[in-house]
Design goal:
Helix 1 runs parallel beside helix 2. It is globular and about 30 Å long. The protein has three helices and four strands; from the N terminus they run E-H-E-H-E-H-E. The chain is of the alpha+beta class and 84 residues long.
Amino acid sequence: MLAELDTKDRIVGIKQLKKALSDGRARKVFVALDADPRLVDPVVAQCRDQGVELEEAPSMEALGKACGIEVGAAVAALIENTGA
């Protein structure tokens, strides 16, 4: 459910998501169905390898809106709260 992204404990974008996956901070990843597979497929594979929950978003536009940004987003994630 995209409403879960209405939190400060989220990241948006492939570069930030890759870092969060490497750091073990990503809890749940959202991938837009209309995103370029060349960009998101490696992220999806890494999520599966690490056992991170995946959810599909209907579009980049919908994912961007759910994250409170005015542009589309290919990926977003809920992350562990680091207490910062």
